Amino acid sequence: MPKHHIEVNIKSLGDSALIVQLGDGIDPAIHETVKNLSELLTSQPFKGFIEYVPAYNNITVYYNPYVIHISQKSSLTAFEIVSSYMNDLVQQMKVNKKEDFKIVTIPVCYGGEFGPDLEHVANFHNMTTENVIQIHSESECLVYMLGFAPGFPFMGGMDTRIATPRKATPRLSIQPGSVGIAGKQTGIYSLETPGGWQIIGRTPLDLFLPHMSPPTLLQAGDRIRFVPISPSEYTDYKEMK
Amino acid sequence: MTVKVLNAGLLTTIQDIGRYGSQKYGVIVSGAMDSYSLRIANILVGNMEDEACLEITLYGTTLHFEDDTLIAITGGDFQTTIDGVNAPLWRPVLIKKNSILKFKSAIQGSRAYIAFAGGISTPIIMESKSTYLRAKIGGLEGRAIQKGDILSFGEPTDYSQELFQRLDKKSINWSINFNEIINLNQNQVIQILKGTEFQLFDKESQHTLFEKPYIVTLQSDRMGYRLEGPPLSLSESFELLSEGVTFGTIQIPTSGQPIILMADRQTTGGYPKIGQVITADLPSLAQLQPTATIRFKEVTILEAENLLIKKEKFIHNIKKAIHNKVFNE
Protein backbone atom coordinates (compact mmCIF):
# COMPACT_ATOMS: atom_id res chain seq x y z
CA MET A 1 0.00 0.00 0.00
CA PRO A 2 1.54 3.34 -0.99
CA LYS A 3 2.32 5.56 1.99
CA HIS A 4 0.10 8.60 1.77
CA HIS A 5 1.61 11.73 3.23
CA ILE A 6 -0.84 13.75 5.32
CA GLU A 7 -0.28 17.47 5.63
CA VAL A 8 -0.39 18.27 9.33
CA ASN A 9 -0.02 21.61 11.02
CA ILE A 10 0.04 21.89 14.82
CA LYS A 11 -0.77 25.18 16.58
CA SER A 12 -0.83 25.92 20.29
CA LEU A 13 -4.16 26.90 21.88
CA GLY A 14 -2.54 28.33 24.98
CA ASP A 15 -0.32 26.26 27.28
CA SER A 16 -2.74 23.36 27.90
CA ALA A 17 -4.22 22.56 24.49
CA LEU A 18 -3.17 22.38 20.86
CA ILE A 19 -4.93 22.10 17.51
CA VAL A 20 -3.88 19.42 15.01
CA GLN A 21 -4.91 20.77 11.60
CA LEU A 22 -5.49 18.04 8.99
CA GLY A 23 -6.73 20.06 6.00
CA ASP A 24 -9.00 22.92 4.98
CA GLY A 25 -12.71 23.38 4.43
CA ILE A 26 -15.62 20.98 4.84
CA ASP A 27 -14.83 17.72 3.10
CA PRO A 28 -15.92 14.14 3.91
CA ALA A 29 -12.39 12.85 3.12
CA ILE A 30 -10.78 15.19 5.68
CA HIS A 31 -13.51 14.27 8.12
CA GLU A 32 -12.45 10.63 7.72
CA THR A 33 -8.87 11.60 8.69
CA VAL A 34 -10.17 13.50 11.73
CA LYS A 35 -12.14 10.42 12.74
CA ASN A 36 -9.15 8.08 12.27
CA LEU A 37 -6.85 10.29 14.33
CA SER A 38 -9.50 10.60 17.08
CA GLU A 39 -9.76 6.81 17.28
CA LEU A 40 -5.99 6.36 17.37
CA LEU A 41 -5.65 8.92 20.16
CA THR A 42 -8.44 7.24 22.15
CA SER A 43 -6.72 3.87 21.90
CA GLN A 44 -3.22 5.27 22.53
CA PRO A 45 -3.54 8.21 24.94
CA PHE A 46 -0.35 9.79 26.31
CA LYS A 47 0.35 10.51 29.97
CA GLY A 48 -1.21 13.89 30.78
CA PHE A 49 -3.84 13.62 28.01
CA ILE A 50 -7.23 14.97 29.15
CA GLU A 51 -9.58 14.85 26.14
CA TYR A 52 -10.03 15.89 22.52
CA VAL A 53 -12.66 17.72 20.49
CA PRO A 54 -12.99 16.87 16.79
CA ALA A 55 -14.02 19.63 14.36
CA TYR A 56 -14.47 19.85 10.56
CA ASN A 57 -10.80 19.58 9.67
CA ASN A 58 -8.86 19.46 12.93
CA ILE A 59 -8.87 18.08 16.43
CA THR A 60 -8.14 20.03 19.60
CA VAL A 61 -6.14 18.06 22.16
CA TYR A 62 -6.36 19.10 25.84
CA TYR A 63 -3.53 18.10 28.19
CA ASN A 64 -2.06 18.78 31.62
CA PRO A 65 1.45 20.27 31.19
CA TYR A 66 2.34 19.63 34.84
CA VAL A 67 1.65 15.89 34.57
CA ILE A 68 3.75 15.79 31.38
CA HIS A 69 6.50 17.77 33.07
CA ILE A 70 6.80 15.45 36.08
CA SER A 71 6.44 12.24 34.09
CA GLN A 72 8.86 13.09 31.25
CA LYS A 73 11.76 14.80 33.04
CA SER A 74 12.62 16.35 29.68
CA SER A 75 14.03 19.75 28.78
CA LEU A 76 11.41 20.01 26.05
CA THR A 77 8.19 21.94 26.70
CA ALA A 78 4.96 20.00 27.16
CA PHE A 79 3.80 21.63 23.90
CA GLU A 80 6.80 20.18 22.05
CA ILE A 81 6.28 16.75 23.61
CA VAL A 82 2.57 16.58 22.74
CA SER A 83 3.17 18.02 19.23
CA SER A 84 5.72 15.35 18.48
CA TYR A 85 3.44 12.64 19.89
CA MET A 86 0.54 13.82 17.70
CA ASN A 87 2.81 14.01 14.65
CA ASP A 88 3.83 10.39 15.20
CA LEU A 89 0.18 9.35 15.55
CA VAL A 90 -0.69 11.08 12.27
CA GLN A 91 2.06 9.16 10.49
CA GLN A 92 0.73 5.87 11.95
CA MET A 93 -2.75 6.50 10.54
CA LYS A 94 -3.89 3.96 8.02
CA VAL A 95 -5.17 5.30 4.74
CA ASN A 96 -7.92 3.52 2.79
CA LYS A 97 -9.39 2.33 6.04
CA LYS A 98 -12.71 0.67 5.40
CA GLU A 99 -15.45 3.06 6.31
CA ASP A 100 -17.83 2.08 9.01
CA PHE A 101 -20.53 4.42 10.10
CA LYS A 102 -23.92 4.45 11.72
CA ILE A 103 -27.03 5.63 9.88
CA VAL A 104 -29.50 7.35 12.19
CA THR A 105 -33.07 8.04 11.17
CA ILE A 106 -34.55 11.22 12.61
CA PRO A 107 -38.34 11.57 12.47
CA VAL A 108 -39.34 15.20 11.88
CA CYS A 109 -42.73 16.86 12.03
CA TYR A 110 -42.29 19.67 9.49
CA GLY A 111 -44.08 23.04 9.49
CA GLY A 112 -46.94 24.29 11.66
CA GLU A 113 -46.10 25.24 15.24
CA PHE A 114 -43.02 22.98 15.09
CA GLY A 115 -41.55 24.63 11.98
CA PRO A 116 -42.46 28.33 12.05
CA ASP A 117 -39.92 29.21 9.31
CA LEU A 118 -40.87 26.49 6.82
CA GLU A 119 -42.96 28.92 4.75
CA HIS A 120 -40.19 31.51 4.78
CA VAL A 121 -37.73 28.94 3.42
CA ALA A 122 -40.23 27.91 0.73
CA ASN A 123 -40.94 31.53 -0.28
CA PHE A 124 -37.22 32.34 -0.29
CA HIS A 125 -36.69 29.68 -2.97
CA ASN A 126 -40.02 30.13 -4.79
CA MET A 127 -41.08 26.58 -4.04
CA THR A 128 -43.85 24.91 -2.07
CA THR A 129 -43.43 23.79 1.53
CA GLU A 130 -43.91 20.21 0.27
CA ASN A 131 -40.86 20.69 -2.01
CA VAL A 132 -38.75 21.91 0.94
CA ILE A 133 -39.80 18.92 3.05
CA GLN A 134 -39.07 16.52 0.20
CA ILE A 135 -35.63 18.00 -0.52
CA HIS A 136 -34.68 18.17 3.16
CA SER A 137 -35.72 14.59 3.86
CA GLU A 138 -33.99 13.23 0.74
CA SER A 139 -30.56 14.60 1.74
CA GLU A 140 -28.23 12.25 3.57
CA CYS A 141 -26.29 14.40 6.02
CA LEU A 142 -22.97 13.76 7.72
CA VAL A 143 -22.39 14.80 11.35
CA TYR A 144 -18.97 16.50 11.25
CA MET A 145 -18.85 17.54 14.89
CA LEU A 146 -20.89 18.26 18.01
CA GLY A 147 -20.70 21.70 19.59
CA PHE A 148 -22.64 24.85 20.54
CA ALA A 149 -24.72 22.77 23.00
CA PRO A 150 -24.57 19.12 24.20
CA GLY A 151 -25.49 16.80 21.34
CA PHE A 152 -25.98 19.62 18.80
CA PRO A 153 -24.78 18.22 15.45
CA PHE A 154 -22.97 20.37 12.89
CA MET A 155 -24.00 18.61 9.67
CA GLY A 156 -23.00 18.87 6.05
CA GLY A 157 -24.52 17.37 2.94
CA MET A 158 -27.89 19.13 2.89
CA ASP A 159 -29.16 19.79 -0.64
CA THR A 160 -28.09 23.38 -1.40
CA ARG A 161 -31.40 24.10 -3.20
CA ILE A 162 -32.86 24.85 0.25
CA ALA A 163 -29.83 26.69 1.69
CA THR A 164 -31.22 29.78 3.47
CA PRO A 165 -29.48 32.56 5.42
CA ARG A 166 -29.98 32.75 9.18
CA LYS A 167 -32.64 35.01 10.64
CA ALA A 168 -31.56 38.65 10.96
CA THR A 169 -32.64 38.67 14.61
CA PRO A 170 -32.13 35.43 16.55
CA ARG A 171 -35.06 34.00 18.51
CA LEU A 172 -34.67 34.27 22.29
CA SER A 173 -35.78 30.71 22.81
CA ILE A 174 -35.85 27.66 20.57
CA GLN A 175 -37.35 24.38 21.76
CA PRO A 176 -35.16 21.24 21.96
CA GLY A 177 -35.60 19.00 18.90
CA SER A 178 -36.07 21.95 16.54
CA VAL A 179 -34.58 21.27 13.10
CA GLY A 180 -33.05 24.32 11.48
CA ILE A 181 -31.23 25.61 8.42
CA ALA A 182 -28.37 28.14 8.48
CA GLY A 183 -26.83 28.72 5.07
CA LYS A 184 -25.80 25.31 3.71
CA GLN A 185 -25.93 23.69 7.13
CA THR A 186 -28.77 21.91 8.82
CA GLY A 187 -28.80 21.20 12.55
CA ILE A 188 -30.97 20.12 15.46
CA TYR A 189 -31.26 22.11 18.71
CA SER A 190 -30.58 19.87 21.69
CA LEU A 191 -31.42 22.25 24.55
CA GLU A 192 -33.71 25.23 24.90
CA THR A 193 -31.40 28.04 23.78
CA PRO A 194 -31.52 31.29 21.83
CA GLY A 195 -30.66 30.84 18.16
CA GLY A 196 -30.82 32.29 14.68
CA TRP A 197 -31.41 29.24 12.47
CA GLN A 198 -34.51 28.97 10.27
CA ILE A 199 -36.69 26.41 12.06
CA ILE A 200 -38.54 24.10 9.64
CA GLY A 201 -39.65 21.26 11.95
CA ARG A 202 -39.11 19.37 15.17
CA THR A 203 -38.08 15.84 16.11
CA PRO A 204 -39.60 14.11 19.14
CA LEU A 205 -36.22 12.44 19.85
CA ASP A 206 -33.95 13.65 22.66
CA LEU A 207 -30.47 14.58 21.41
CA PHE A 208 -28.89 15.05 24.83
CA LEU A 209 -29.02 12.02 27.14
CA PRO A 210 -27.06 13.09 30.24
CA HIS A 211 -27.52 9.75 32.01
CA MET A 212 -26.38 7.58 29.09
CA SER A 213 -22.92 6.82 27.78
CA PRO A 214 -22.23 8.34 25.32
CA PRO A 215 -24.54 11.15 26.44
CA THR A 216 -25.74 12.08 22.95
CA LEU A 217 -28.01 10.50 20.34
CA LEU A 218 -25.61 11.46 17.55
CA GLN A 219 -21.84 11.29 17.30
CA ALA A 220 -19.36 12.79 14.84
CA GLY A 221 -19.27 10.51 11.80
CA ASP A 222 -22.94 9.45 11.88
CA ARG A 223 -25.02 9.69 8.69
CA ILE A 224 -28.47 11.21 9.17
CA ARG A 225 -31.73 10.67 7.30
CA PHE A 226 -34.77 12.79 8.10
CA VAL A 227 -38.17 11.11 7.82
CA PRO A 228 -41.34 13.28 7.73
CA ILE A 229 -43.97 12.41 10.35
CA SER A 230 -47.42 13.85 11.11
CA PRO A 231 -48.30 15.81 14.26
CA SER A 232 -50.16 12.76 15.63
CA GLU A 233 -47.13 10.53 15.03
CA TYR A 234 -45.05 13.19 16.81
CA THR A 235 -47.40 12.94 19.81
CA ASP A 236 -47.20 9.13 19.73
CA TYR A 237 -43.39 9.29 19.84
CA LYS A 238 -43.47 11.67 22.78
CA GLU A 239 -45.91 9.45 24.68
CA MET A 240 -43.83 6.33 24.02
CA LYS A 241 -40.97 7.78 26.05
CA MET B 1 -24.20 16.53 58.52
CA THR B 2 -26.15 19.31 56.82
CA VAL B 3 -26.39 23.05 56.38
CA LYS B 4 -29.48 25.03 55.54
CA VAL B 5 -29.36 27.93 53.09
CA LEU B 6 -30.90 31.04 54.71
CA ASN B 7 -29.92 33.35 51.85
CA ALA B 8 -28.76 32.26 48.43
CA GLY B 9 -26.98 35.41 47.25
CA LEU B 10 -26.49 36.59 43.67
CA LEU B 11 -25.29 33.31 42.14
CA THR B 12 -24.13 30.45 44.33
CA THR B 13 -23.51 27.11 42.63
CA ILE B 14 -21.99 23.74 43.41
CA GLN B 15 -18.77 23.39 41.40
CA ASP B 16 -15.84 21.00 41.39
CA ILE B 17 -12.76 21.05 39.17
CA GLY B 18 -14.94 20.58 36.05
CA ARG B 19 -16.54 18.02 33.77
CA TYR B 20 -13.78 16.67 31.55
CA GLY B 21 -13.99 14.01 28.86
CA SER B 22 -17.37 14.95 27.35
CA GLN B 23 -16.47 18.09 25.41
CA LYS B 24 -16.49 16.05 22.20
CA TYR B 25 -20.23 15.63 22.79
CA GLY B 26 -20.69 19.37 23.18
CA VAL B 27 -20.90 19.10 26.99
CA ILE B 28 -19.18 22.12 28.55
CA VAL B 29 -16.49 21.80 31.24
CA SER B 30 -18.02 24.17 33.87
CA GLY B 31 -16.28 23.85 37.25
CA ALA B 32 -14.77 26.51 39.51
CA MET B 33 -13.90 29.83 37.88
CA ASP B 34 -10.91 30.09 40.25
CA SER B 35 -9.66 26.51 40.41
CA TYR B 36 -6.68 27.31 42.66
CA SER B 37 -8.96 28.62 45.43
CA LEU B 38 -11.24 25.59 45.08
CA ARG B 39 -8.36 23.12 45.26
CA ILE B 40 -6.76 24.82 48.26
CA ALA B 41 -10.10 24.97 50.11
CA ASN B 42 -10.44 21.21 49.64
CA ILE B 43 -6.86 20.54 50.77
CA LEU B 44 -7.48 22.61 53.92
CA VAL B 45 -10.32 20.32 55.03
CA GLY B 46 -8.65 17.07 53.97
CA ASN B 47 -10.82 16.45 50.86
CA MET B 48 -9.61 15.31 47.47
CA GLU B 49 -8.50 18.45 45.59
CA ASP B 50 -11.22 18.10 42.95
CA GLU B 51 -14.16 17.76 45.38
CA ALA B 52 -17.24 19.97 44.98
CA CYS B 53 -17.46 23.27 46.88
CA LEU B 54 -19.88 26.18 46.90
CA GLU B 55 -18.85 29.01 44.60
CA ILE B 56 -20.26 32.35 45.77
CA THR B 57 -20.40 35.31 43.38
CA LEU B 58 -19.96 38.97 44.48
CA TYR B 59 -22.33 38.92 47.45
CA GLY B 60 -24.85 37.02 49.44
CA THR B 61 -25.18 33.56 50.93
CA THR B 62 -25.98 32.89 54.55
CA LEU B 63 -25.75 29.33 55.85
CA HIS B 64 -27.02 27.73 59.06
CA PHE B 65 -24.92 24.78 60.24
CA GLU B 66 -26.98 21.97 61.73
CA ASP B 67 -23.92 20.01 62.96
CA ASP B 68 -20.30 20.63 63.94
CA THR B 69 -18.50 20.87 60.59
CA LEU B 70 -14.94 21.36 59.34
CA ILE B 71 -14.84 23.94 56.55
CA ALA B 72 -12.42 26.27 54.75
CA ILE B 73 -13.16 29.56 52.97
CA THR B 74 -10.89 30.74 50.15
CA GLY B 75 -11.04 33.03 47.11
CA GLY B 76 -12.14 36.65 47.43
CA ASP B 77 -12.73 38.45 50.74
CA PHE B 78 -16.49 38.81 51.32
CA GLN B 79 -16.31 40.24 54.89
CA THR B 80 -17.49 36.84 56.05
CA THR B 81 -18.65 36.32 59.62
CA ILE B 82 -19.45 33.36 61.86
CA ASP B 83 -22.11 34.40 64.38
CA GLY B 84 -21.13 38.02 63.78
CA VAL B 85 -17.38 37.54 64.32
CA ASN B 86 -14.95 37.83 61.39
CA ALA B 87 -14.36 34.40 59.89
CA PRO B 88 -10.76 33.35 59.27
CA LEU B 89 -9.97 32.77 55.59
CA TRP B 90 -7.52 30.41 53.87
CA ARG B 91 -7.30 27.99 56.78
CA PRO B 92 -9.35 25.16 58.29
CA VAL B 93 -12.22 26.33 60.50
CA LEU B 94 -14.34 24.29 62.90
CA ILE B 95 -17.91 25.50 62.80
CA LYS B 96 -20.07 24.66 65.77
CA LYS B 97 -23.60 23.37 65.51
CA ASN B 98 -26.21 26.14 65.05
CA SER B 99 -23.64 28.69 63.91
CA ILE B 100 -24.50 31.11 61.12
CA LEU B 101 -21.96 31.77 58.37
CA LYS B 102 -22.65 34.97 56.52
CA PHE B 103 -21.06 36.34 53.35
CA LYS B 104 -21.56 40.07 52.73
CA SER B 105 -20.13 41.67 49.59
CA ALA B 106 -16.74 41.17 48.00
CA ILE B 107 -14.18 43.77 49.08
CA GLN B 108 -11.41 41.79 47.35
CA GLY B 109 -11.90 39.49 44.37
CA SER B 110 -15.30 38.39 43.10
CA ARG B 111 -15.71 34.69 43.96
CA ALA B 112 -15.40 32.86 47.27
CA TYR B 113 -15.28 29.11 47.84
CA ILE B 114 -16.40 27.06 50.83
CA ALA B 115 -15.15 23.50 51.14
CA PHE B 116 -16.89 21.15 53.58
CA ALA B 117 -15.09 18.10 54.98
CA GLY B 118 -16.50 15.10 53.13
CA GLY B 119 -17.56 17.20 50.15
CA ILE B 120 -21.09 18.09 49.05
CA SER B 121 -23.31 15.04 48.48
CA THR B 122 -24.84 15.33 45.05
CA PRO B 123 -25.00 12.92 42.11
CA ILE B 124 -21.97 12.64 39.84
CA ILE B 125 -23.06 13.26 36.25
CA MET B 126 -20.51 12.53 33.53
CA GLU B 127 -17.67 12.34 36.09
CA SER B 128 -18.50 15.65 37.78
CA LYS B 129 -20.71 17.32 40.37
CA SER B 130 -20.43 20.75 38.68
CA THR B 131 -23.64 22.67 37.99
CA TYR B 132 -24.39 23.18 34.29
CA LEU B 133 -27.29 25.63 34.45
CA ARG B 134 -28.35 25.63 30.80
CA ALA B 135 -28.50 21.82 30.56
CA LYS B 136 -30.02 21.62 34.06
CA ILE B 137 -27.59 18.93 35.22
CA GLY B 138 -25.11 18.57 38.08
CA GLY B 139 -25.11 20.47 41.38
CA LEU B 140 -28.47 20.64 43.10
CA GLU B 141 -31.07 19.65 40.45
CA GLY B 142 -28.97 21.45 37.85
CA ARG B 143 -29.74 24.88 39.29
CA ALA B 144 -28.22 27.58 41.47
CA ILE B 145 -28.58 27.33 45.25
CA GLN B 146 -31.85 28.77 46.61
CA LYS B 147 -33.10 29.90 49.99
CA GLY B 148 -34.32 26.88 51.97
CA ASP B 149 -32.02 24.34 50.29
CA ILE B 150 -30.42 21.73 52.52
CA LEU B 151 -26.88 20.67 51.62
CA SER B 152 -25.56 17.41 52.98
CA PHE B 153 -22.00 16.16 53.05
CA GLY B 154 -20.20 12.93 52.28
CA GLU B 155 -18.25 10.79 54.71
CA PRO B 156 -15.12 12.76 55.73
CA THR B 157 -11.83 11.06 54.88
CA ASP B 158 -9.78 9.60 57.76
CA TYR B 159 -7.45 12.53 57.27
CA SER B 160 -10.36 15.03 57.61
CA GLN B 161 -11.49 13.32 60.81
CA GLU B 162 -7.99 13.43 62.23
CA LEU B 163 -7.75 17.13 61.31
CA PHE B 164 -11.10 17.73 62.98
CA GLN B 165 -9.98 16.03 66.21
CA ARG B 166 -6.70 17.89 66.39
CA LEU B 167 -8.14 21.29 65.50
CA ASP B 168 -10.76 20.82 68.19
CA LYS B 169 -7.98 20.73 70.77
CA LYS B 170 -5.71 23.55 69.63
CA SER B 171 -6.12 26.87 67.91
CA ILE B 172 -4.57 27.72 64.55
CA ASN B 173 -2.33 30.71 64.04
CA TRP B 174 -1.50 30.22 60.37
CA SER B 175 -3.15 30.63 56.97
CA ILE B 176 -2.17 30.10 53.33
CA ASN B 177 -0.26 32.96 51.72
CA PHE B 178 -2.53 33.09 48.69
CA ASN B 179 -0.63 36.02 47.17
CA GLU B 180 1.87 33.45 45.92
CA ILE B 181 -0.75 32.02 43.60
CA ILE B 182 -3.65 34.44 43.05
CA ASN B 183 -3.79 38.19 42.50
CA LEU B 184 -6.98 39.75 43.87
CA ASN B 185 -6.22 43.29 42.60
CA GLN B 186 -8.80 44.83 40.30
CA ASN B 187 -6.15 46.35 38.05
CA GLN B 188 -4.09 43.56 36.60
CA VAL B 189 -1.58 42.57 33.98
CA ILE B 190 -2.83 39.32 32.44
CA GLN B 191 -0.24 37.22 30.61
CA ILE B 192 -1.23 35.74 27.29
CA LEU B 193 0.09 33.74 24.35
CA LYS B 194 -0.67 34.80 20.81
CA GLY B 195 -3.88 33.21 19.52
CA THR B 196 -4.20 30.95 16.49
CA GLU B 197 -5.47 33.86 14.31
CA PHE B 198 -3.22 36.61 15.77
CA GLN B 199 -1.43 37.16 12.44
CA LEU B 200 -4.75 37.77 10.65
CA PHE B 201 -5.38 40.96 12.67
CA ASP B 202 -4.14 44.26 11.26
CA LYS B 203 -0.85 45.64 12.57
CA GLU B 204 -2.55 48.35 14.59
CA SER B 205 -4.80 45.84 16.38
CA GLN B 206 -1.83 43.55 17.10
CA HIS B 207 -0.13 46.53 18.73
CA THR B 208 -3.22 47.88 20.53
CA LEU B 209 -3.92 44.57 22.28
CA PHE B 210 -0.70 44.90 24.27
CA GLU B 211 -0.65 48.70 24.63
CA LYS B 212 -4.15 49.72 25.71
CA PRO B 213 -6.18 48.83 28.81
CA TYR B 214 -9.43 46.87 28.53
CA ILE B 215 -12.31 47.11 31.00
CA VAL B 216 -14.36 44.13 32.24
CA THR B 217 -18.00 45.06 31.46
CA LEU B 218 -21.19 44.24 33.35
CA GLN B 219 -22.05 41.71 30.61
CA SER B 220 -19.49 39.31 32.08
CA ASP B 221 -20.40 36.01 33.66
CA ARG B 222 -19.24 32.42 34.15
CA MET B 223 -19.47 31.89 30.39
CA GLY B 224 -17.31 34.78 29.29
CA TYR B 225 -15.82 38.16 30.18
CA ARG B 226 -16.88 40.82 27.69
CA LEU B 227 -14.26 43.54 27.56
CA GLU B 228 -14.46 47.11 26.37
CA GLY B 229 -11.62 49.08 24.86
CA PRO B 230 -10.21 50.09 21.47
CA PRO B 231 -11.83 47.73 18.88
CA LEU B 232 -9.61 45.14 17.19
CA SER B 233 -10.03 44.17 13.56
CA LEU B 234 -8.85 41.65 10.99
CA SER B 235 -6.74 42.83 8.02
CA GLU B 236 -9.33 41.28 5.73
CA SER B 237 -12.57 39.49 6.52
CA PHE B 238 -12.26 35.78 6.85
CA GLU B 239 -14.65 32.96 7.71
CA LEU B 240 -13.48 30.55 10.40
CA LEU B 241 -15.19 27.19 10.81
CA SER B 242 -16.18 26.26 14.36
CA GLU B 243 -13.42 24.46 16.24
CA GLY B 244 -12.34 23.69 19.79
CA VAL B 245 -11.79 26.58 22.21
CA THR B 246 -10.73 26.59 25.86
CA PHE B 247 -10.72 28.49 29.17
CA GLY B 248 -9.00 31.82 28.54
CA THR B 249 -9.43 31.93 24.75
CA ILE B 250 -9.70 35.59 23.67
CA GLN B 251 -12.17 35.79 20.77
CA ILE B 252 -12.87 38.85 18.67
CA PRO B 253 -16.46 38.97 17.34
CA THR B 254 -17.47 41.43 14.59
CA SER B 255 -17.90 44.27 17.12
CA GLY B 256 -14.11 44.17 17.64
CA GLN B 257 -14.55 44.02 21.44
CA PRO B 258 -12.76 41.04 23.01
CA ILE B 259 -14.55 38.21 24.81
CA ILE B 260 -12.49 35.99 27.12
CA LEU B 261 -14.02 32.52 27.43
CA MET B 262 -14.42 31.37 31.03
CA ALA B 263 -15.54 28.21 32.91
CA ASP B 264 -19.00 27.86 31.30
CA ARG B 265 -17.77 28.51 27.73
CA GLN B 266 -19.18 26.51 24.82
CA THR B 267 -16.93 23.68 23.66
CA THR B 268 -16.45 25.13 20.17
CA GLY B 269 -16.36 28.61 18.65
CA GLY B 270 -16.05 30.24 15.27
CA TYR B 271 -14.67 33.71 16.07
CA PRO B 272 -11.00 34.49 15.37
CA LYS B 273 -8.81 33.99 18.43
CA ILE B 274 -6.33 36.81 19.00
CA GLY B 275 -4.87 35.47 22.24
CA GLN B 276 -4.98 32.90 24.96
CA VAL B 277 -4.66 33.66 28.69
CA ILE B 278 -2.03 31.44 30.31
CA THR B 279 -3.38 28.79 32.68
CA ALA B 280 -1.46 30.20 35.67
CA ASP B 281 -3.33 33.54 35.35
CA LEU B 282 -6.88 32.18 34.91
CA PRO B 283 -7.77 32.15 38.63
CA SER B 284 -6.62 35.78 39.03
CA LEU B 285 -8.64 36.73 35.93
CA ALA B 286 -11.69 34.95 37.41
CA GLN B 287 -11.42 37.15 40.52
CA LEU B 288 -11.90 40.37 38.51
CA GLN B 289 -15.19 42.22 39.00
CA PRO B 290 -17.01 44.23 36.34
CA THR B 291 -15.21 47.61 35.86
CA ALA B 292 -11.81 46.01 36.58
CA THR B 293 -8.95 46.94 34.22
CA ILE B 294 -6.81 44.48 32.28
CA ARG B 295 -3.56 45.03 30.44
CA PHE B 296 -2.32 42.14 28.34
CA LYS B 297 1.32 41.09 28.29
CA GLU B 298 2.80 38.54 25.91
CA VAL B 299 4.84 35.61 27.25
CA THR B 300 6.38 32.58 25.51
CA ILE B 301 4.98 29.09 25.85
CA LEU B 302 8.05 28.13 27.91
CA GLU B 303 7.38 30.98 30.36
CA ALA B 304 3.69 30.03 30.51
CA GLU B 305 4.51 26.40 31.30
CA ASN B 306 7.10 27.38 33.91
CA LEU B 307 4.61 29.64 35.71
CA LEU B 308 2.05 26.84 35.68
CA ILE B 309 4.58 24.34 37.07
CA LYS B 310 5.63 26.81 39.80
CA LYS B 311 2.01 27.21 40.96
CA GLU B 312 1.34 23.46 40.83
CA LYS B 313 4.41 22.93 43.03
CA PHE B 314 3.12 25.58 45.44
CA ILE B 315 -0.16 23.67 45.81
CA HIS B 316 1.73 20.42 46.22
CA ASN B 317 3.85 21.97 48.99
CA ILE B 318 0.77 23.28 50.81
CA LYS B 319 -0.36 19.72 51.36
CA LYS B 320 2.91 18.78 53.01
CA ALA B 321 3.05 21.99 55.06
CA ILE B 322 -0.47 21.53 56.45
CA HIS B 323 0.32 18.02 57.50
CA ASN B 324 3.40 19.25 59.34
CA LYS B 325 1.55 22.12 61.01
CA VAL B 326 -1.32 19.99 62.24
CA PHE B 327 0.42 16.77 63.12
CA ASN B 328 3.98 17.65 64.06
CA GLU B 329 3.91 21.01 65.81
Automatic annotation (TrEMBL), chain A:
MF terms in GO: ATP binding; hydrolase activity
InterPro entries xref list: CT_C_D (IPR003833), Cyclophilin-like_dom_sf (IPR029000), PxpB (IPR010016)
TM region positions: none
Keyword Cell membrane set for record: no
Name of the protein in question: Inhibitor of KinA
Keyword Cell division: no
Keywords linked to the UniProt accession: ATP-binding, Hydrolase, Nucleotide-binding
Family annotation (Pfam families): CT_C_D
UniProt organism field: Psychrobacillus insolitus
Gene3D superfamilies in the cross-refs: 3.30.1360.40, Cyclophilin-like
Source species, domain of life: Bacteria
Location of the Carboxyltransferase domain: 8-218
From TrEMBL, chain B:
Keywords from the named record: ATP-binding, Hydrolase, Nucleotide-binding
UniProt cross-references to InterPro entries, sorted A to Z: CT_A_B (IPR003778), Cyclophilin-like_dom_sf (IPR029000), PxpC (IPR052708)
Domain of life: Bacteria
GO molecular function annotations of the record: ATP binding; hydrolase activity
Domain Carboxyltransferase, first and last residues per copy: 24-314
Pfam families in UniProt: CT_A_B (PF02626)
SUPFAM superfamilies registered for this protein in UniProt: Cyclophilin-like (SSF50891)
Protein name: Antagonist of KipI
Organism: Psychrobacillus insolitus
